[in-house]
């Protein structure tokens, strides 16, 4: 039995974890809608495993009998919208946790919230939902998409890089990524390319970088895209050009990238070696359970479960208005330490420059180099007017 399946079995023994079915009135129903197949599956799997690990530690969420439905959104917005609607309308989900990808978030926010449930994102943080299209029933335990990239823009500025080449996939989070980098970086952009989602061959882009010889490269390439880009970057002999990124060299990609990523820098709201007691306990429990280093997706899934539990206990049940009020207070201790929600229901938190290292046990991980932003709120909150 796989470690994840054993966790599911252990959790199901004390609560109720099942495929979709009609909910019981006295049971808390949480739908977990994540990408669990295709190139982005590793991200969804980490978020799922982090969420279930916390749920197992908690037992009954908010002291209530709990049923968790785990569903694959297939990284397809139309599929996700239908499954989200079914979760809420047919299965009676009180809360939906998801998704990973921002284009999917745009597809499910209305079916979930208009259906009467609360949506909690353990990853996706698109700019529209942080700003003008903010929603009282939407919360993110992650970040606003721009922020990790703003870290790297600030780092590039501090390093005095005058000419940086930018690279990201062509979808909402990719556009937010480059906007975030530009927000903090005041130098020249040597070139900017939006690649196809799921692209795995970067020979043309790397040839262009080699010809231009910029001071640095900034890339946002999550999942399998990042694995291939980093490998091909090394193979092209470009390691002399500093490689800056977010979600491109992290614990979701490092098992495949290995030595090719060592020394590369990233921006993040967390790393496995962040020094808080809660984080040390989380990382140890996760590694023991799953046999690999947790990534930011796992951490944010873990925190999502802790947040839900704390809010349910404060609200005294699943009344929607009471739950929204409780969620705003963020009544839990994040593994990140300082954590609160801004007026748009996105986190106010610290952000760090990280670097890939090989640990003494041979595993690859990101490690905190320095704090870049303290108690940092996103740049879209001022545009949010909650109804």
Automatic annotation (TrEMBL):
Regions that span the bilayer: none
Signal sequence coordinates: 1-23
Pfam families for this protein: Peripla_BP_6
The Leucine-binding protein domain, residue ranges: 27-357
Keyword presence, Signal: yes
SUPFAM superfamilies linked: Periplasmic binding protein-like I
CDD domains (alphabetical): PBP1_Nba-like
UniProt entry tagged with the keyword Repeat: no
Keywords (A to Z) from UniProt: Amino-acid transport, Signal, Transport
GO terms under biological process: amino acid transport
Family recorded in the similarity comment: Belongs to the leucine-binding protein family.
UniProt protein name: ABC transporter substrate-binding protein
Organism, scientific name: Paracoccus aestuarii
């Amino acid at each position: 039995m796989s470690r994840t399946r054993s966790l599911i079995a252990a959790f199901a023994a004390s609560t109720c974890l099942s495929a979709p079915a009609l909910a019981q009135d006295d049971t808390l129903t949480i739908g977990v809608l994540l990408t669990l197949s295709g190139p982005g599956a590793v991200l969804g799997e980490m978020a799922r495993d982090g969420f279930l690990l916390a749920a197992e530690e908690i037992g009954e969420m908010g002291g209530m009998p709990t049923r968790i439905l785990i569903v694959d959104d297939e990284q397809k917005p139309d599929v996700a919208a239908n499954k989200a609607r079914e979760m809420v309308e047919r299965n009676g989900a009180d809360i939906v946790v998801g998704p990973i990808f921002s284009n999917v978030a745009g597809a499910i926010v209305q079916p979930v919230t208009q259906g009467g449930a609360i949506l909690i994102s353990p990853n996706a943080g698109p700019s529209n939902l942080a700003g003008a299209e903010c929603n009282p029933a939407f919360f993110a335990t992650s970040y606003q998409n721009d922020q990790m990239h703003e870290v790297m823009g600030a780092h590039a500025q501090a390093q005095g890089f005058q000419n940086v080449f930018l690279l990201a996939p062509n979808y909402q989070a990719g556009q937010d990524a480059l906007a975030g980098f530009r927000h903090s970086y005041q130098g020249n952009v040597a070139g900017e390319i939006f690649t196809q989602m799921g692209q795995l061959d970067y020979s043309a882009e790397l040839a262009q970088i080699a010809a231009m010889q910029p001071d640095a490269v900034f890339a946002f390439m999550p999942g399998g895209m990042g694995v291939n880009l980093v490998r091909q970057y090394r193979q092209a002999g470009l390691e002399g050009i500093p490689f800056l990124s977010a979600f491109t060299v992290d614990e979701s990609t490092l098992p495949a990238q290995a030595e090719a990523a060592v020394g590369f820098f990233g921006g993040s709201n967390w790393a496995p070696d962040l020094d808080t007691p809660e984080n040390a306990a989380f990382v140890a429990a996760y590694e023991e359970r799953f046999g690999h280093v947790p990534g930011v997706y796992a951490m944010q899934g873990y925190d999502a479960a802790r947040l839900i539990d704390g809010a349910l206990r404060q609200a005294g049940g699943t009344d929607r208005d009471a739950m929204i009020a409780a969620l705003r207070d963020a009544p839990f201790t994040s593994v990140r330490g300082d954590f609160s929600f801004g007026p748009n229901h996105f986190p106010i938190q610290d952000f760090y420059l990280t670097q890939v290292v090989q640990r003494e046990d041979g595993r690859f991980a990101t490690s905190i180099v320095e704090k870049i932003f303290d108690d940092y709120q996103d740049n879209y909150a001022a545009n949010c007017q909650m109804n």
